[in-house]
Amino acid sequence: MERFFDTNNPIMRFLSRLVDLAVLNLLTLACALPVVTLGASLTAMNYVTIHQARNEETYITKMFFRSLKDNLRQGIGLGLIYAGFAAVAAVDLLALRRFDTKDTTALMLILTFISVYAVTLAAYSFGLLARFENTVRETLKNAMRLSIGNLPRTMGMILIWVAWGAALLYLHKAAPLAILLYGVSLPGYLCTLLYDPVFQKMEAEINTQSGTVPKEEK
């Protein structure tokens, strides 16, 4: 019995991580409620999940609000860019649904794929903003380079979000609770497990002349 409650027990570590992700999700949603702070909130979430992926000691609330404060201005800018894209994509999808032709169906599939890709691009972007000093423009450019240059990992991230969306549809009535507790933190954490090895390689080979500096080393 003592072994079961041992913090080094794999089951206890798993349960502890689930609790941490639930807390992180609640913080992320709460700080994203003003909408304009969505990007800063997602950046803070990625800051925490990167530390979790590296099995570094994490104080969820303290680390979250530290990153939220440090990246507020750039996070807002980056968030507004993705929010604008999401709004345009949503309007286009709703408009296309009014027509039932092969052409519009194909366009809807293409737009849906682009939208899902944009979600993974956002994961790279907010992760980069959380970890590296750079402008919003350069962060977006680097996110695109990483997503294309690490295509297998990017496809894995797409599959994570598609699977999570399918799971929410399957859960049906329980979906609101799942979204409240793990809506963005769970798929976000799984995506971090995929992109963080790339970040670690970047940090090991970092070129100070590029202007991209790990925030942890400032």
UniProtKB/TrEMBL annotation:
InterPro entries: DUF624. This is DUF624 domain-containing protein. The keyword Ubl conjugation does not apply. Pfam families: DUF624. The chain crosses the membrane at residues 22-50, 71-95, 107-130, 151-171, 177-195. Keywords: Membrane, Transmembrane, Transmembrane helix.
